[in-house]
From TrEMBL:
Protein name in UniProt: Beta-ribofuranosylaminobenzene 5'-phosphate synthase
Molecular function terms from GO: ATP binding; kinase activity
Domain GHMP kinase N-terminal: 86-142
Domain GHMP kinase C-terminal: 224-306
A Pfam family reported for this protein in Swiss-Prot or TrEMBL: GHMP_kinases_C
UniProt keyword annotation of Transferase present: yes
Species name: Methylophaga nitratireducenticrescens
Keywords, ordered alphabetically: Kinase, Transferase
Length: 336
């Protein structure tokens, strides 16, 4: 077995992701879920590793729950991929520089697991694929977007899980147009459904109509993806919104409506009145976004929405920011 890298700093930084919808919750053809999404630059999980005496140190102030989650992920690596690594070679110190917000619909859990898995694999000179790390770290039970953007970024469609799929199978990956911008709407007072509540929601919701799955697949293949490749934001946005409507109607009983946050729903409705068509909630939210054709249009929309927020006391907890797609995977650096 190769000895771990000594006297080096290993750093891994991975971008957040948006989950724009499922392809097939019906599962009639033997595959469940299937997802549409992309990597974005609004937030990053950035962690570095140095050799130490096998304890965890954070450079940022973290809650006990986050520290426990990180320690559990380190343990998960050494129970699976690193189970044959001797205890005396596991002396690692992790420095947390930034984290994607939890339960906001940005893929924080998957990116944290993959960053920790990749950084430990690099330290121990193990050449594991990202899907293998994801499986070992118990990710990819539904969406494969965060797994499939980790290596290359971009816009991704996966085929979900079949009977023998350890993680969702990637079908399509393409650069997101560099000039397009996303106006992000984040509600600091809400969190998306997660954990056991999420599992129960999937169990209790009615069967997803087959006709709706067929419609989503048709929209994805014959409108969304061609519009992405041809950089036609009007057709792209129209497809996103129609897919979101079908998905949102299904999940409305669990999340309290088309959108998890009523404040964001109000702002999205205003965007519709302004003529925007590409609007989406990521996963269970509350983070939502509006697709715009360039930075100038994004800036104008942010100014419009900020004026609305400033005049309405019920909207004060909404954060607005502009984001772009990320067309490269996680950045991995090793410094002596």
């Amino acid at each position: 077995m190769a000895s771990p890298v000594r006297q080096q700093i290993i750093s891994v930084q991975a971008p957040a992701r948006l989950h724009l919808g499922f392809l097939d919750l019906n599962g009639g053809l033997g595959r469940h879920f299937g997802s549409i999404g992309l990597a974005i630059d609004s937030h990053f999980t950035h962690i570095s590793l140095t050799e130490n005496d096998n304890h965890f140190l954070a450079e940022t102030q973290l809650s006990d729950s986050v520290q426990n989650k990180i320690n559990k992920l380190i343990g998960q690596f050494y129970l699976t991929l690193g189970k044959d690594i001797p205890i005396d070679l596991r002396r690692v110190r992790l420095h947390v520089h930034s984290l994607i917000p939890e339960h906001a619909g940005l893929g924080s859990g998957t990116q944290l697991a993959l960053v920790i898995g990749r950084i430990l694999a690099t330290y121990h000179q193990r050449d594991y694929t990202t899907p293998r790390i994801a499986q070992a770290m118990d990710r990819g039970k539904r969406s494969g977007i965060g797994i499939n953007t980790f290596d290359r970024g971009g816009f991704v469609v996966d085929a979900g899980l079949g009977v023998n799929s350890p993680t969702p199978v990637k079908l399509f990956q393409h650069d997101f147009p560099s000039q397009w911008r996303l106006v992000m709407l984040m509600d600091k007072n809400h969190q998306g459904i997660h954990g056991q509540t999420e599992i129960q929601a999937f169990q209790q919701l009615p069967a997803f109509p087959l006709l709706h799955s067929q419609k989503i697949c048709h929209l994805t293949l014959m409108q969304l993806l061609p519009a992405l490749i041809e950089q036609n934001i009007e057709l792209f946005g129209s497809a996103v919104s129609e897919i979101q409507t079908l998905i949102g109607q299904h999940f409305a009983p669990a999340q309290g409506g088309q959108y998890t946050s009523k404040a964001i729903a109000k702002l999205i409705q205003h965007c519709q009145s302004l003529g925007f068509s590409g609007m989406a909630q990521s996963s269970w939210g509350p983070t939502s976004c509006v697709f715009t054709e360039n930075q100038s249009q994004a800036d104008r929309l942010i100014a419009e929405l900020r004026g609305m927020i400033n005049s309405d006391s019920q909207l004060q907890n909404i954060e607005l920011l502009s984001a772009t797609g990320v067309n490269q995977g996680a950045a991995i650096t090793i410094d002596d």
